[in-house]
Protein 1
Amino acid sequence: MKVMISQPMKNRSNEEIFEERKELIRRIEENGDTVLATVLTEEDVEKDDPIYYLAESLKFIAQADKIIFMKGWEKARGCKIEHQVAVEYGKEIMYCN
């Protein structure tokens, strides 16, 4: 199963993001599932535009069988939109606190 992690990322470094999701990724992979690499690096980024990042995340949702929403998703604009898309398109959803 392909799993996407939705996580608040605004004003956070990639190092902070990776550290926060490290244990969750370990558990997902231990279960035999694959975590989609959704954290964009500087090499991946064409411009500093939140809508660009949202468009990229929608591509990941299309590939995912399941989306896991991490703590704080309900306060993050992009995560809330990802959640609405996942609900509307019938993706399996889990919540991780």
Protein 2
Amino acid sequence: MPVLETENLGITFGGLRAVENVHFALEKEQIMGLIGPNGAGKTTVFNLLTGVYTPTEGQIKLDGKSIVGKKTYQITKAGIARTFQNIRLFKDMTVLDNVKVAMNYGMKYSFLSGIFSLPGYWREEAQVEQRALELLSVFHLEGNAGDLARNLPYGQQRKLEIARALAARPKVLLLDEPAAGMNPTETMELMNTIQRIREQFQVAVLLIEHDMSFVMGICEHIVVLDYGKIIASGSPEVVRNDPKVIAAYLGGE
């Protein structure tokens, strides 16, 4: 059973069909790319998967169960976490607290324990802090734990956002242009990090990216959108040589 599956997925805004008949199956621990020209509907698909938009047609299943109609926080709790094209960190909070805040829904101490700082509260807080530091170490950010997020270089802010998404213990990680603004060295390092994340956290990854060398180098399967419809789907080699894909990106064969 795929961990994430869409069937005939679509959404209409007024008279505009932004996404139509999108179908794919993301297997457990698979890295899949969702690509296409600007305006192809990629981020709209992400917004459908995470409950920002409700589809006007079709189905989304996580572990075989429909998540259509669920609220964003319910979908996150069910096992889908995401990053954004424009970085959305809590920039006036520390790097450590940015990760810890994503763990709040899993904390089990009582309201009274928190109010009166009882031993259960401190025990749980210590465990959360330890796990947050372990996540930061995956991205070599543990030395910046006490820094404000706004003071990190751009590339490290991107990594912090991924670390925060992983803090929610997702089954599926959605990455929206994770390599945007990175230099070639940072991009190569990110590729290695994503592969390590997949293995270490046993998570499936669905990513949007315009850097084709990045996509072709890391994805096992690629889905190509154009004007909200799938025009190609398959291995990097198949997609790279598809005439429809070439025409969509270059405006002609």
Protein 3
Amino acid sequence: MLAWFKRKALAATEYAEDVEAEIDASTARSWGWLKILLIAIVIFIPCWYLIGGLVYQRINDDVDFRQDAALAEPRQSRAVATAAALIERETARWSPNEQFWSPAITLDNMPNYQLGIVEAVSRFAIEMVDQLGRQRGSSASDKDLEAAAGYLRYDGTIWIMQDWKPTASAEAQYTRAVEAFEKYNLRLAAGDAIYDKRADNLIALLNRIGADMGSASAALDQRTLESNAGYFDFGADEILYNVKGKLYAYYLILRDVGTDYSDVIAGKQLTPIWDRMLSNFKRAAGMNPLIVSNGAQDGAVMPSHLSALGFYLLRARVQLREVTDTLAK
């Protein structure tokens, strides 16, 4: 009997040892998979956000961009067509409202650039409502232009959820603005809308754009006063690209406003001044430093890209004022 108990005890001990060994092996395998998972996460996250952000980023400053469809119908506004096409192009890859899971969350230049574009087009839309799209400013405002201006005032950082409630996204609202612009242009071609191409209307548009450029110039100037950290000013690029986006949009719009108002400009013999003004807008829009530096204005190692952009901005603004002064005579 005693031998039987000894055999049973030995078997139980061996079984326990086998179970313990299996548990140890299973634990080792689990830790191994956990280590592999952690290593994968450590590698994947930087690749997703850093490399993914570089792939996602697009600063489209093509100064030859235009809406060729508007060229087929001379009664349409080329400036309105280009404004609509510009918004449509940017909303196809809209970054300011991307969420934490998107690699675009690491970007700051592209979102600020796109917001600057929308701000400029929004200003143009407001002037179309108030002046250019109505008869001598006294007739009723155009319903499609009002809709476009309203949609463009929407906050560009809003996603499809706000305060945990469903809402319209920025790109959805901007797409509606594009549709409203296009409806206006179709009605304009059919003779059912107004595009009042008078010198005083052009003056009003240029004055508003000039005022907005003054605000942009002040923002650049304020940043240069606050910091001369050169390449280590990590907020300077946000301001530069926001202003660059505005000037790029204004360049395209004014280029095509020049076509829309060609008779007025030629009649006032403004073509050389207009072209010089556009040239400075174009140079500002084309600025694209590899790394934005906000150094001293006379710095050699760390230049001041904000001051360089501000120089072209002020040159364009001076010539814009020269245009309005000549138009007023």
